[in-house]
Amino acid sequence: MYEEKEAVLVVDDEESIREAVCRKLESEGYECAGAPDGKQALWEAFMREFSLVLLDIKMPGMSGLEVLSRLAEDQPDTAVVMITSLNDTQTAVEAMGMGAYDYVVKPFDLDALVARVKKALERRHMSQENRDYRLRLEQKVEQQVGQIHQYYREAIEALAREEVAMNTLEQQKKQAEEKTNAEALHLQFARMLAQMAEVHEPYARGHSERVKLLAHDIAIQMGCSNKLIREVQIAAIVHDIGKVSIPDHILFKPGTLTPAEHAEIKRHPTVAVDLIRQMDFFKSVLPIVESHHEWYDGKGYPSRLKGDAIPVGARILSVADAFDAMACARPYRPRLSNEEAIETLKKGAGKQWDPSVVEALTRIMARESRLLQSPQTEI
Ligand SMILES: [Fe+2]
Fold first, then answer.
1. Cα(16) to centroid of ligand 1, in Å?
2. How many percent of the chain have pLDDT more than 90?
3. How far apart are CA 342 and CA 360, in angstroms?
4. Which CATH number is correct for 200-372, 3.40.50.2300, 1.10.3210.10, 2.40.10.330, 3.60.130.10?
5. Can 7-132 and 200-372 be said to share one CATH topology?
6. pTM, two decimal places
7. Residue 240 Cα, ligand 1 centroid: separation in angstroms?
8. Of these four, 66, 287, 337, 343, which has the most CB atoms within 10 Å of its CB?
9. Closest by alpha carbon to 317, among 269, 367, 366?
10. How confident is the model over 33-75, as pLDDT tens digits?
11. Centre of ligand 1 from the C-alpha of residue 322, in Å
12. What distance in angstroms lies between residue 323's CA and the mean position of ligand 1's atoms?
């Protein structure tokens, strides 16, 4: 059953007894060592592990009980069988209370002693097996408890993540709603500004909204991104709000404008930008608004930008703005037909206007314009 020999330590101050016991145990297959006193016994036990210690109670120096006490503390797996004299069985019983497995009374029969040793070792093995079983059980329980804790931890974390996700979704939804509301308010504000500018100029009423629609169609025709399509429309709404700063006597002057009056008119893109600059909503459309009177050949205002240096949104807005102005009557001239307006734009392509934008508008007019309008992108 046991592959390794069981080691037994025989502790007795009588050498003859030690030797006799050791011989007998060795003949029974045990490995045996002897110690004449308690001190030596503890040393031997310290040097190697014994399965069992046969321990004489009465010894010179350290008593058997003292040795037992030390062994119980240092080598709790070692079985101890006390050896006692007939008149000291009371001490042997006391030793049992201290953890000794058994006791044998001197003089003893060696076979009987071996039987008690075997019995003690069997108890020790059983005890060890029980202890190992208990340990394994405890480990298993601990492992399962750990798994349960892990399961709950993961479940709680998953719930927390879900809650965060829900919160995030809620927040995103709320933020999207707030953004939509804010954008609607800004657009409303922009339209209000445009109307304020247009109210001074009866012939321009509805101009910004019409320019917005046309610029939208041109941007789509040119394959612009949704972002740019949106920016062009916002810019179209506010492009002329700077005209609120132009005195009526200049704005409505029937005759030729003086250079000073002309300079005053030319300020309106910059004034418009100054009016909306403080609002983040308009930030991306400022360059379009500011440049809507730049000319493709660099002769426009306010910065005399040329060609591609003019934001494409501004080049689109410029064409839409001019077309609507020509297509509407003015005090000093009747409205032009769409064809006449397109002809004028074509003549100015490469000078005042970007030829590709004029070309896009020409295609739109040829296909009756509004067919290309996309409800998803119009604001
Ligand atoms: Fe303008």
1. 127
2. 47
3. 11
4. 1.10.3210.10
5. no
6. 0.53
7. 5
8. 287
9. 269
10. 999 999 999 999 999 999 999 999 999 889 999 999 999 888 8
11. 9
12. 12
